[in-house]
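WARN retry 2 of 3 for item q-0093 after timeout on previous attempt; input resubmitted unchanged.
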Amino acid sequence: MDYSNAPDRPTDQQARKASGPANDFSDALRPSSLDAAGLTRAHLKADARAPRNRLDRKALGHVWQAIDIFAILTLTVAGAYALSGGAVTEVAAGELLPLLAFATLCPALLMVMGLYRIEPRESSMLRMLRAFIAAALTGSAITLLAGVTAPGVAHLVATFSITAVGAVTLLHVIYAGFIQHWARAGRLARNVVLVGATPNASKLITANAGSGTINVVGVFDDRAARSPQALAGAPYLGTTDDLLKWSLLHEVDRIILTVTPKAEARVRLLLTKLRALPHTVCLLLDLERFDPEATSLDEIVGVQAARMSGSEVPFGQLAAKRLQDLVLGFGLFVFSLPVMAVIALAVRLDSRGPVLFRQVREGFNGRPIQVLKFRTMRHDPAAAEKPMRQVELHDPRVTGVGGFLRKTSLDELPQLWNVLTGDMSLVGPRPHAIGMRTGGTETANLVAEYAHRHRVKPGITGWAQINGSRGPLHSPEAARERIAYDVAYIAKAGFWFDLWIMLRTLPALLGDKINIR
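OK item q-0093 returned
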């Protein structure tokens, strides 16, 4: 696991010693002064890294279920072909019935046995045994069925059963090997931060050390004076205000409030702050009966916690949206290639500088992504070092070709590549630049729900855009209107709603003569 890509600090041995995997921190002594404590925490926050390139366990379970169904159907077709000698249509229904029963019953039993729930700390032998039992029960059932419906081929069905049981079990042996490998690499762990340096937090971290189920990146607590440098191996990284500004927050999957629910005033205060984030926030319930030997932190977070903020999008909806992006996005990308070639030539001939403009913007969960556009302004090599200024009416920075591209939104065509790579979606809130300002104030500070727009991937077009909220934001009112549309879209997002927004986009753009773009 690569927890840190930050350079070593040879001049600060203490900070370097404290960096590394979040759950492998050694308990450190509290620095002797508040300044030293603040410096060390700053280094910890800079060096802390959560495992990346992780796998979504729910998605992985669905993928393996699809592979199983395909393999079982393939076995069924091959069995029917062998049973009939190549003439499947001439076989009696009673002889095919056991094979059809296998194709139906086996996937159902595998699901009932919980083989598509990915639990990193589960024994590989137990997983393989459950797969064998599910397949063997199915094989025994269809062999008995063949004795009733087709006694003459019962021996052939028995041979098919043995082969199918072996094949299904082998598949799950392979799955178990991958689970074990990925669990050791931390790729199946959920990244969480704990808010509250409490005994409950210490108990949870200790009980789940090395399980591969949860990676506690760090602990935040407003009561800094009572907070240790490290809690059960997890570093103390600061207050909730530090959490809100933490540069690695986009790597976190869930925020867990470990303050006892009995401290109602404190819980309300913390939730007021944390609800501004796009993350799921959970409040742990009473853990007096918690058995660390029998219950994992993952189970506690999923079962014994109350979801206070945020929501998880169903896997089916995510899969449908991604398929929509890939199919329609690829078609639009191919169709637009000749247009993009002409635009690229026009940009090159119009002014000096690169054809494409690359800018780091905020993506899903606030994760930084590099968004592509055709360059519409005069090239300024020092632009990255200057404060970002939004485009204004008759802005002298905009080139002749750039003005046309902005009015028609053709400058955003390269973002189809961002869609294909998975950084963006065809429909969603428009990606804002990091630290974007509206009227001299950072936009995120103007609207309490600002971060909620990061609950989904940013899009090329969106609900706000077809309702007239396009282009730069020059007033707090315009920012609040844009965010209200974005949050409303997230609440209603779906396959058909996205298609409706796409169909409305072109007429909305052509009819817009007001917004600066």
